[in-house]
Design brief:
It is a single chain. This protein has about 375 residues and is α+β, with helices and mostly antiparallel strands. It has two domains: about 1-175, 3-Layer(aba) Sandwich (Rossmann fold); about 185-380, no CATH class. About 20% of the residues lie in helices and about 55% in strands. The strands form two sheets. Strands 6, 7, 8, 9, 10, 11, 12, 13, 14, 15 and 16 form an eleven-stranded antiparallel beta sheet that branches. The protein has a five-stranded mixed beta sheet with strand order 2-1-3-4-5, sandwiched between helices. Helix 1 (about 1-10) runs parallel beside helix 6 (about 95-105) and helix 3 crosses helix 7. The longest helix has 25 residues, at about 40-65.
Length: about 375
Amino acid sequence: MRKYGLLFCALCLASGLAWAQGQGMSKVFVKTTVKNADSLTEVQRGDATAIAHYLESRLAELMAKNYPCMTVLTQQDLVALLDSEKERRLLSDDDLGRLEALGGALGVNYLLSVSVMAAGPGQYYVNGMMIDVWGKSVEGRSGTSVPSGDPSLPGAEAYAQQLVSSLASLKQFSPEKCTPTNLWMGTITFSRGKEKTDRFEPGPLMHATRVYDKGEGTDQTSERSKVEFRIPWAGPVKVTVDYHLTQRKEVTRTFRASCKVPGNWQERTTANGTKSSVENDESTGAGAVNGNAIISLNEGKIVFQLSAEDVEGTFTHHSTSKTSGGCPDEKPENLDVSSNSSAKLGGMSPLTFEAPANPNAKVQSGTNTTFGGGTLSWMLKRTPLKQ
C-alpha cells in the first residue's frame, strides 16, 4: 500500500494534465521494459533496449491507427510531464502490480505492457499483454522470439502487428464503430521569422563627474517562432511550440569629465573619454502544450479559430561595458554581468482568420504569407463521418 500511495502521489500532476488533454476519451498507456537488465551483458542490454524502444513507438502508432477513438500515451509522453528524475524512474518498473497502480494514477483505461528478455545468444523473447485497469483482467496476451540486430526486423514488426490486431475487446474504438470528434484532420502551422536592425542616437546622460553629450548605437532583433497544430481523427488537438528571440544592443558614447588639477584642488580641467556597452537578451522555449483549433466553412471561405498556451522557457541577459579616457587618476571600468530566469514564452493568443476555400472540396490546403507578419499554412482533410 505504501508503494502504491507513493506512486499515485508522484504522478498526480501528470494524471491531471493527461486527463485535461483527453477528457471523455478512453486512454491506453503503451509501456515497454527490459527484463532483468542488470544481469545482461552490455551488448544484450543494448539490443534489448533497441527492440523495446522500437516496439513502444510502433505499437503506439498502430494503436492510434487501429483505434482512433482512444488516446494513446507512451513513456516519452509521461517523461515530459513528470518533474523529477525520481518520478521518471517509477516508469521503469515492470512489476504487474506497479503497472496497475500506474494506470490508476494516470486515469488510463488500458495498459499495453510489453517486456523484452534475453533468450539466448542473439535471441530475445518478447511478451505482451493488454490489461483492463478497471476490470482488472487481461484482455490479450502474446509472445514471440526476436533476433538481435536491427530492431525493425520482420520479427518485431510482425509481432507488433499481430498483438494489436488480436485485441478484439477494443473493437468499439475502431474507425467502424466510433464517431470522430473533429470535423477536419491534418496540420495547421504558423511560423514567423524576422530580423531587424535599427540605428539610433542615445540621448545625453548626466553623471557626477561626466557629461555624455554624443553617442551612436544599433539595436538588432531576431525572432523565430513556430506553432504547429496537429488535428487527429478523434481526440484532443496536439500543439507543439518552438520560440526563439534574441536582441543585441550596442551603444558608444563620448563624454567630458571634470577633473581636479593635482596640487590645486580649487582648479578643474576637462578630459575626454568614451564608453561602450553591449546588451544581449535571449528568450527560448519549446514543448508540447494544450491548444484549440476550430475549422469551419462559411460562404466560400475557410475560417480558423486557433489558440495555444505558452511554453516554459528561459530568459538570459548578458551586459558588458568599458570606458576609456577621462581624468588622469580615474581607473577604466570593465563590467560583465549575466542573469537568467524562467519565463512563459511563445504560444498563440486566441485569433480568428479566414481564407478563400472551395466549399465542396474534401481537402483544404493553402498558405498565407502576410498574416500576423508570418506564414500560416494548412493541409486538412474532411473527417469521413459515419453514415
